Amino acid sequence: MILAGFFGSQDPSSNIATSLTWIFWWIVLIFTVMFLGRVFCATCPWLAISDWIQKLSLWGRRTRQFTLGLRWPARFKTILLAAALFILLTWLELAIGVTKSPIQTAYLGLIILGLTLGSMLLFERNYFCRYGCPIGAIQGAYSLMSPVELKAESLEVCKNCKTKDCIRGNEKGYGCPTYTYVGSENSATSLSCILCSECVKTCPYDNVAFNFRPFLKDLTSSFTPSHAWALFAVVILALTSFHGLTMIPTWGLLISLTEPYLGYIGSFTVWMFLFLGFLIGAVYFFVYLARLMSGTTMPNTRTLFTYFAVSFLPIALFYHAAHNVAHFNMDFMGFIKALSDPFGYGWNLFGTANIQVAPITSMDYVWYMQAFLIILGHILAVYVSTKIAHRTYPTHSQAFRSQIPITTLMIFYTMFSLWLTAQPMVMRTSM
After folding, report:
1. Helix axes 227-245, 301-308, angle to 10 degrees
2. Which of 99, 132, 179, 222 lies most in the core, judged by the most C-beta atoms within 10 Å?
3. Does pTM surpass 0.85?
4. CA 151, CA 70: separation in Å to the nearest integer?
5. How far apart are CA 103 and CA 315, in angstroms?
6. How far apart are CA 310 and CA 234, in angstroms?
7. Helix, strand, or coil here: 173?
8. Are 213 and 148 in contact (CB under 8 A)?
């Protein structure tokens, strides 16, 4: 991707850097995380290169590692850094048009590599994957719904373990690079586990394994995220819909209102943050209404926001999938064409360079699929929210009343999502 971005044609339709990154990889990422959790983290090229350089080895355990081993600053042990980088990545994609530029896509790949490698050379283990990587953070949030996890088979064995080799490491493997304890009873390891399997190697009791579990388990169990993670869940919800909003004629009208005064970039930035702030405020407001309607002052609004914000993740995930269905239909044949001529030099390596780039099927069928995914996400979100309400309130009546505002907001947002997918969209090489 980097080679094609720097040395290939700068026409995005004939360079594999843009189609590989923004069509094939991103679509595959969203659908794999839905069923396999953070499996991409286990195969991440940025992490692999950084890991090889840090350990000065392609495989095997090295006692000495090439790193200063500094402690990660306590103030950055929060998901807010990754959330900020995700907002920045979205802005670069949509406002600057990184997805339309092969060389800018290559630069972006190098920047992410630099952040990953720099973190591993400066700090102990791999905190960037846990607290800084926006791609890993999105996967972590969506993995709360995934039917697979890397977890201890018996929590009792972990309680009785004195050495905690899964965290510290031993002669068989390294300690967990993100300090994720797979024997924890009340935390969702999916948020920070990168599926490196070092804990599988190091556990002296053979007690760690990849497990199948019910879909949505983390969201419906006793797990409660931090307020920062809850806020990030709403940010994901907002920015996934924002991608669709910027592709319809209505967006052009909004930009035209402020562009004479702020310019395009300024107008885009203002409307983007207005949309983001409006949705965060709307969730807070409806959570406040839920607190009022429950008839009890406890928990407070901030705590309730922490509880209920993650219930919107199914809506975000399935809208994200629905949005990418349209991209797959319109742009995937362009990726197949680029496979034969990745640099745009006129090659025909696999005999696909001359295929016609056209939609795979009718957009009518695509919309039915999108509608199905969006409605499914809405149903799952209502289910999760109801589970959280019954876990939060002591009586069925309080839980039921609290769900009236939350469900109302979800209905409004689902209708908005259906309206977005029904609009004529200007397709581009992007998420």
Report:
1. 60
2. 99
3. yes
4. 28
5. 34
6. 8
7. strand
8. yes
Same domain, 207 and 226: no
Report whether pLDDT(116) > 60: yes
| Lookup: tokens for 84 | 């900020």
SS3 (DSSP) at 237 = helix
Give the single-character DSSP code of 20.
Answer: I
- Coil, strand or helix at 148: strand
In percent, the amount of the chain with pLDDT more than 90 equals 55
Q: Which domain covers residue 53, as residue numbers? A: 2-136+222-422
Q: Are 371 and 418 in contact (CB under 8 A)?
A: yes
**Residues 321, 322, 323, 326, Cα dihedral to 10°:** 110
From 57-66, 67-76, 247-256, 356-365, the region with the lowest mean pLDDT? 57-66
Is the per-residue pLDDT at 160 higher than 60?
yes
Contact partners, residue 326, CB within 8 Å, separation at least 6: 363, 366, 370, 421, 425, 427
The number of residues making up the chain comes to 431
pLDDT top residue among 103 and 22 = 103
Please indicate, yes or no, whether residues 227 and 199 belong to a single structural domain of this protein. Answer: no
The average pLDDT across 267-296 equals 94
Q: Which two tokens stand for residue 231?
A: 């806020």
Token pair belonging to 202: 């190091």
State the pLDDT at residue 429.
Answer: 47
Is residue 180 domain-shared with residue 243, that is, in the same domain?
no
Same domain for 302 and 412, yes or no, is yes
In a shared domain, residues 208 and 247: no
